Amino acid sequence: QVQLVESGGGLVQAGGSLRLSCVASGRTVSRNAMGWFRQAPGKEREFVAQIAGSSGVTYYAHSVKGRFTISRDSAKNLVYLQMNSLTPEDTAVYYCAADSSDLLSSPSVIDYWGKGTLVTVSS
């Protein structure tokens, strides 16, 4: 079993930056796919970014590419999401995800989720 705990959310003005962190406990996840999803009020949970388990290759949603950067510290079971040039459209609860497979796929089949951290971007 893996427990994921996010931190780093908060209120920021448009154009600002935040860094989200997710720490995994229970067992090592250094070779698991890990990533971030987000869910805005009234919308479905959507993919933001992920880092592949074996290769470390990163993938991003089109809406955040060039602004967000995902990284991991395997020794500390941590994954980060650096978010720059934030806009009000980035306002959402951000969820950390991990899976035993090499890549994250549909939210409905992902093994592990954190409880989320709220990011609010004011205009």
Task: Please sum up the structure shown.
Helix content is 0%, strand content 50%.
Describe the structure.
It contains no helices and eleven strands. It starts with a strand and ends with a strand. The protein is mainly beta and about 120 residues long.
Q: What's the alpha carbon Rg, rounded to whole Å?
A: 13 Å
What does the largest sheet look like? 7 strands, mixed
What's the order of the H and E elements? Answer: EEEEEEEEEEE
Strand content: over 45%
Mean pLDDT equals: 94
Task: Note the gap between the termini.
Answer: 40 Å
Envelope shape: globular
Structural class: mainly beta
* Beta strand count: 11
* Percentage of residues assigned to helices: under 10%
Which residues sit in consecutive blocks of at least 5 with pLDDT less than 50? none
User: Tally the helices: what do you get?
Assistant: 0
Keywords for this entry:
4-stranded antiparallel beta sheet, 7-stranded mixed beta sheet, 123 residues, mainly beta
Topology:
Elements: E1 3-7, E2 10-13, E3 18-25, E4 33-39, E5 46-51, E6 58-60, E7 68-73, E8 78-83, E9 92-99, E10 112-113, E11 117-122
Parallel strand pairs: 2-11
Antiparallel strand pairs: 1-3, 3-8, 4-5, 4-9, 5-6, 7-8, 9-10, 9-11
